[in-house]
Amino acid sequence: MEKQGKTIKGSVLNVGSANDEYNYKRFFPHATIFHNLDKRNRPNVDIVADVEWMPQATNSEDCIVACFMLYDVSNPQVALNEFRRVLKPNGVLLATFQTPFTKTETLSLLEKLRIEEFEEYFEDGQLICVFIRAMKLGD
């Protein structure tokens, strides 16, 4: 996250942020705008909305951060489609999640979610982070 965050300029939307207890903003020193979106109204949340129906305009965000939240979404494909809608062309989705699945099972899941190209980082066989270019998200 820290490595990728340094390359992001412009607007960053942290979705499923809860109260942003990890202070992800610190990873984005070149961000001009940083918003926290969560479905619950909590401290540090400035946009209360569901990730499957976000109020952001189409092509409005340079980066979406989705840390450890996709497992909590009723329909991950709808959320990913919404991320694609909101991201600017060549925008970046930084998605992190842990999974009990093997690398093969996780890559199969990403394929089922119709994510065509991504960079994945595994640690001890467990998926830690996925970086997805918006234009590569499946239709």
Shape: globular
Spatial order of the strands forming the largest sheet:
3-2-1-4-5-7-6
Helix content: 10-25%
Q: Would you tell me which CATH topology applies? A: Rossmann fold
CATH class: Alpha Beta
CATH architecture: 3-Layer(aba) Sandwich
Most strands sheet: 7 strands, mixed
Helix count equals 3
Structural class: alpha/beta
The amount of beta strand, in percent, is: 25-35%
How many domain regions?
1
Low-confidence stretches: 134-139
Description:
- Strand 6 and strand 7 (126-133) form a beta hairpin.
- Residues 134-139 have low confidence and may be disordered.
- The chain is 18% helix and 33% strand.
- It starts with a helix and ends in a 6-residue tail after the last strand.
- The protein has a 7-stranded mixed beta sheet with strand order 3-2-1-4-5-7-6.
- It is built from 3 helices and 7 strands, in the order αββββαβαββ.
- It is globular, with a radius of gyration of 14 Å.
- It has helices at residues 2-5, 76-86, 103-112, and strands at residues 10-15, 31-38, 47-48, 61-67, 87-96, 119-123, 126-133.
- With 139 residues, it is of the alpha/beta class.
- It has a single domain, classed as Vaccinia Virus protein VP39 (Rossmann fold).
- One of its GO terms (molecular function) is S-adenosylmethionine-dependent methyltransferase activity.
- This is Methyltransferase type 11 domain-containing protein.
- It comes from marine sediment metagenome.
- InterPro entries: Methyltransf_11, SAM-dependent_MTases_sf.
- Residues 41-94 form the Methyltransferase type domain.
